[in-house]
Amino acid sequence: MAGPYAGLRVVEFGRFIAAPYAAQLLADGGSDVIKVEPLLGDNTRQMAPIVPGEGRQFLNKNRGKRSLAVDLGNEEVLAGVRTLVAGADVVIANFRPGLAEAMGLDYETVLDSNPRVIYAENTAFGRLGPMADAPGVDIVMQAYSGLPVLDEHGPRPIAAPAIDYAAGLLMSWGIATALYHRERSGRGQKLDVSLLQAALVLQNNQLNHLDAIDGWRNDYVEYLKTAFADGKSWDEILDHREAIGPFAVARAYYGMFRTADGVIGIGGLSKPFQRSLLGLLEIEDPSVTEPNWESDDMNGHMRDMRTLVETKLMEWPTAHWLTAIGATGVPVAEYHTQEQMPDLEQAWANDYFVRLEHELLGGLTVVAPPVKFSDTPLAADEASPVLGKHSREVLSEAGLEADAIERLVGEGAIVASD
């Protein structure tokens, strides 16, 4: 069956993660994605390459695309690329500031020749404000947005580039929304997704301020203005936040816990779940079972409860707790490392991984398309292309004569590996 995007042409000027991943999702849906790369390829081709030009971080965001490797500084090549863009349904770009305008590949210029185009850009900090032109990658955006968890060792970044992938997902959703609008109106439009906005979305549970109960936040922000300059330790900063901030009842029943032989994750976030755990573990917590119970030190009380829960869980192995806690209805699962995931039976049973063959590297196990459709399934059928694999084919479609293409290949303005 054809994918939901069959017949759509996408031209991608993407680097790193967000834009290429958004384009990969469209390719999974059956669209013809032409990835325009510089002569040396997308930056991620050079990151810890397995063989020259093929890095792990390129392989997992560029499957199912066609690679056009060219020098956009060559006017003849650029004219061909502009022709491709003029006939595209979607353009995905994350050019550095000013570059798209200089090449005539910005939205306003493209719109003149292609009023139905969906033009999707991603930036680091957004288009406005004092940081508008600043570059940004995932770890920088984690720092700026407050995403890392703060513990006694300081901010602990998330190892996975969650912000980049969230931005890619938001971009693909935005493109789908714009395509839906175009079907009804006949008009394209521009959309912008920033890494900063994606970071805020990931913290949607925490990043709100309720005037009635969150006045403590203002005091904490004021304290932080001088805390680092005053040489405060991370422990002191945490203690200050704990002293003035709200207590978290769930911290004793929600998180990762050691067992006698492993680690489990427990989702005891609600009072019914917490009461079920208390009954199973045969411990008492009046903050859970007695309405309106209060302590002079609620944070200290919850630390004590956490210790009690941890002590109980260490008495039996993981298999015991998976059965016992599972029987209460409380969400629970065994902890797995990232290295264990490609062998996980549950993931394979649902086709969450897929096997592909790469022409240079052989077999690959990759994460499958993330949504299941009953009538128009997404499909990951082809591995990422080698650099310039489709250059001749794509430029021919753009109207360049075969002799001109070969001349430009000889001049070094095009990489063509087909």
Annotation field: number of helices? 17
Round the Cα radius of gyration to an integer and report it: 26 Å
Integer average pLDDT: 95
- Our count of domains comes out at 3
Per DSSP E runs of 2 or more residues, the count of β-strands stands at 16
Shape estimate: elongated
Biggest sheet features: 7 strands, mixed
Structural class: alpha/beta
CATH architecture of the largest domain: 3-Layer(aba) Sandwich
The order of strands across the largest sheet is 10-7-6-1-2-5-16
**Percent strand:** 15-25%
CATH class label of the largest domain: Alpha Beta
What would you say this structure looks like, in words?
This protein is of the alpha/beta class and 418 residues long. The chain has 3 domains: 9-201 and 351-415, 3-Layer(aba) Sandwich (Rossmann fold), CATH 3.40.50; 212-244, no CATH class; 247-338, formyl-coa transferase, domain 3 (2-Layer Sandwich). The chain contains 17 helices and 16 strands. Strands 10-7-6-1-2-5-16 form a 7-stranded mixed beta sheet, sandwiched between helices. A hairpin with a 2-residue loop joins strand 8 and strand 9. Helix 1 packs across helix 7, helix 6 (138-145) crosses helix 8 and helix 9 (215-227) runs antiparallel to helix 10. The longest helix has 24 residues, at 162-185. The radius of gyration is 26 Å and the shape is elongated.
Keywords:
alpha/beta, Rossmann fold, formyl-coa transferase, domain 3, 3 domains, 17 helices, 16 strands, elongated
Compact description:
The protein is an alpha/beta fold and 418 residues long. Helix content is 40%, strand content 17%. A seven-stranded mixed β-sheet has the order 10-7-6-1-2-5-16, with helices on both faces. Strands 11-12-13 form a three-stranded antiparallel β-sheet, covered by helices on one side.
